[in-house]
Amino acid sequence: MAVITEIMANPVARGLVGVLVVVAFISLNVLFLTWMERKVVARVQVRYGPNRAGPFGLLQPVADTVKLLTKEDIIPKAADRLLFTLAPAVAFTVAVLPAITIPLTKGLIVTDLNVGILYVIAVSSLATIPVIMAAWGSNNKYSLLGGMRAVAQSLSYEIPLVLSVVGVIALTGSLSMVRIVEAQKDTWFILLQPLGFAVFYLAAIAEMGRIPFDMPESESELVAGFHTEYTGMKFALLLFAEYIHMVVATALIVVLFLGGWNLPFITLPPILQAAVFMVKMYIVIFILMWTRGTLPRIKINVMTAIGWKFLIPLALANIFITGILLAW
Amino acid sequence: MPVETSCGIEGCIRAVKTDNPDEMVLNLGPQHPSTHGVARLVIRLKGERAEQIEPVIGYLHRGYEKMAENRTYIQFIPLTDRLDYLSAITNNMVYCMAVEEVMGLEVPERAEYIRVIMLELQRLASHLVFFSSFGADLGAWTVLMYGFRERERIIDLLEMVTGARLTYNYIRFGGVRDDLPEGFIEKCSRTMEILPDYFKSYEEYAYENEVFMDRCRGVGVVSAEDAINLGLTGPNLRASGVPYDIRKIDPYSIYDRLKFKVCTDKAGDTLARFKMRIDEMYESVKIVQQCLDEIPEGEIRAKVPKVLKPPAGEAYSRVESPRGELGMYLISDGKSQSPYRLRIRSPAFCNLSGFPATAEGEYIPDVIANFASIDIVLGDVDR
Q1: Nearest CA in chain B to A43
Q2: How far apart are CA B334 and CA B310, in angstroms?
Q3: Number of residue pairs across A and B with CB atoms under 8 Å?
């Protein structure tokens, strides 16, 4: 035990262990999510979903991974080899980065940065770059269109996303993720910031690029958007990155608005707190999947219009109202 | 930088070309998730806006008109199944009607009823595929599953009578191949009672869904005059407010005795075209119910010689297929056992040729929605 404490005192070692734990934890979650997504959507669509590999088809993600690993790795002749190969790796890395400041409980966090939320937002907006790399590197028109859409979407929804968080920060008086959660010990911010939550939720779906905002991929229009040309493990990594975005974004929703590990009026032991956090996160994820099973995709021009004309004014109004109420 | 598509048919690519660096030529299909088989659209894009659209056809051309000249009359019936593979019975029907007209055959009463039941069941099945694939093209995959679930009920009924699920090869000169099996009428009327409830749930899903309505409303508007000039037919024409339905205008079989209304809409947009199909499904259910109530006993086929050698003559027959006016023009020289010439007038071809004019200037998502709403079947376009 003493050895472990000694090792963990070294910042480099702590960082390395943290990265390993975070990547392993997120990867496990993502594998489970791919199964869950297929199962939930199948149920909405009166199907069974995967049910052959393992109990309830739970080993399906493993089978999928093996399949993708054994696929031929194709790089198109006309592609920009460097960008094309680099994009999946960058996508994966950038997607994992925000996870290090997300607290499952007070102690279960890699590092509680005092600019936590700012860091998360800054890093998560990097996610556009690998998309553009993949889109441009593929040298494919569908990919290019998908990449363009991803940028347009990112631009239109990054701003309301940031603005909607301002209310939460004002209420907490801190940018630290742990402090934000602790401030919600009794009242979750979803009650104090309903408008902020609505804007954040919508903008987060758009940032994740999920139906009804899955413009960058939009299967029936752009074939597969920016990852049209990808096969095998590169494709798997891009897909992985998307699910990681989902994990991170839903975790953020839980931290910012749903009280993190807190349950109202009860103090739980840390291990149960982590469980509470996960349950909340999976409820949000379930709602996302349910939405995907229900809605068609909206149009690209309507999507940007919603971002600029509707969400940004709402987010600003939210800041204004919060400011007035706080000054009261 | 001039952008060119490197593969494809020369003539078409020459038509869609650009030297403008702001534009690019996008080749949509024949391998594309939303082209319903092998449709190919070459699109000149400016940003996300389609400036020019050129459909390229022929990927499913099998030369059926020529093949008809080398087959005996009866041998061509199974081939008609494969024209518009989503409404095989309709194709059987129009071909048999043409031959019957040349030969002057009288069809027994019961056979006519069975034919109409099968035709309308086929229309239901076809419109359900439209509903499904339309949803899928908008990105609502759940709709696809729901539509096919109900289609399965219809296919079961058709399978009960014909033994096949897609290519039925059922209608014969002067009648039909087999009589209705035992228990069909009960099973069919039960299904017809349930179906309208499902259609209501479709309507609820579509019309109360803001995202869905936004994708369809005001997209690809065609005025009544334009629709006529472009040669649109079937539900696409009626969506623009022209009450043109062969079943009413030139009644064949026993349609003049049945009560049903021709659905029209004034809007002429993608939503109206979607609505036409849903409304027509209600009418089809009514028609089937009437036929089931009134179907008489009797022969199912007229007396037709084993070796068919129709007298010299020509005939044009037309029916209202799920996609519009389907016609066949048949010439018999009176000497041989095969048609001298058979010309097929396919509704999907007419609808597709009118499509670019309605879709140019739209964004890609609108082009896709619009393209899905005209409901083409490539087997019917290319023949």
Answers
A1: B142
A2: 6
A3: 82
B16 lies in the same domain as B160: no
pTM: 0.85
* Distance in angstroms (rounded) separating the CA atoms of residues A292 and A213: 10
How does DSSP classify residue B257?
G
Q: Does A221 touch chain B (CB under 8 A)?
A: yes
Q: Do A300 and B365 touch (CB under 8 A)?
A: yes
Q: Are B150 and B109 found together in one domain?
A: yes
- Enter the tokens of residue A34: 């791919």
| B24 and B103 assigned to the same domain | no
pLDDT computed for residue B4 by the predictor: 46
The residue in chain B having the minimum alpha-carbon distance to the alpha carbon of residue A146 is: B48
Question: Does the residue B4 lie in any domain?
Answer: no
Provide the pLDDT for residue A220. Answer: 66
Chain A contact set for B48 (CB, 8 A): 145, 148-149, 300-301
A45/B26 touch (CB, cutoff 8 Å), yes or no:
no
| B171 and B24, same domain (yes or no) | no
B278 and B372 assigned to the same domain: yes
Taking CB atoms and an 8 Å cutoff, what residues of chain A touch B368? 220-221
Measured between beta carbons, the chain B residues lying within 8 angstroms of A48 are: none
Q: What is the pLDDT along chain A (328 residues), one digit of tens a residue?
A: 567 677 777 778 777 887 888 888 888 888 899 899 889 989 888 888 888 888 888 888 889 888 888 888 888 888 888 888 898 999 888 888 888 888 887 776 777 777 888 888 888 888 888 888 888 888 888 888 888 888 888 888 888 888 888 888 888 888 888 888 888 887 888 888 888 898 999 888 888 877 777 776 766 677 777 888 888 888 888 888 888 888 888 988 998 888 888 887 777 777 888 888 889 999 999 998 888 888 888 887 888 888 888 888 988 898 888 888 888 7
* Interchain proximity A218–B48, CB inside 8 Å: no
Q: Tell me which chain B residues have a C-beta less than 8 angstroms from the C-beta of A294.
A: 140, 142
Task: Establish if B5 belongs to a structural domain.
Answer: no
Between chains, do A214 and B140 touch, taking CB under 8 Å as contact? no
Assembly ipTM: 0.78
* CB-based burial label for A127 (10 Å; 0-12, 13-18, 19+): buried
| Chain position carrying tokens 């990155």 | A241
Please state, in angstroms and rounded to a whole number, the distance separating the CA atoms of residues B308 and A122: 80
- Interface check for A40 against chain B (CB to CB < 8 A): the answer is no
Domain finish residue from B23, B39, B56: B56
Sign of CA dihedral A118, A124, A130, A132: negative
Domain count along chain B = 2
Domain that holds residue B26: 10-56
Look-up: residue for tokens 């095998």?
Answer: A232
Is B44 in CB contact (< 8 Å) with chain A? no
* Half-sphere exposure at residue B314, Cβ-oriented, CA atoms within 13 angstroms: 8
Q: Are residues B115 and B197 in the same domain?
A: yes
Q: How far apart are CA A47 and CA A36, in angstroms?
A: 14
Do residue B139 and residue A219 have CB atoms under 8 angstroms apart? yes
Residue A245 to residues A19, A31, B32, B177, B193: CA-CA distances in angstroms? 17, 13, 28, 59, 47
> Residue B141 and residue A141: Cβ atoms within 8 Å?
no
Show residues of chain B in contact with A302, CB under 8 Å.
214
Which residues 95-154 of A are in CB contact (within 8 Å) with B?
141-142, 145, 148-149
Structure tokens, B208: 């109360």
pLDDT digits (tens, 9 = 90+) for A281-292: 999 999 988 888
Q: Are B263 and B312 members of one domain?
A: yes
User: B97 with B330: CB under 8 angstroms?
Assistant: no
A220 closest CB neighbour out of B139, B209, B212: B139
CB < 8 Å to B212, chain A: 295-296
Residue B237 is assigned to a structural domain of this protein: yes
Whether residue B37 is found in the same domain as residue B106? no
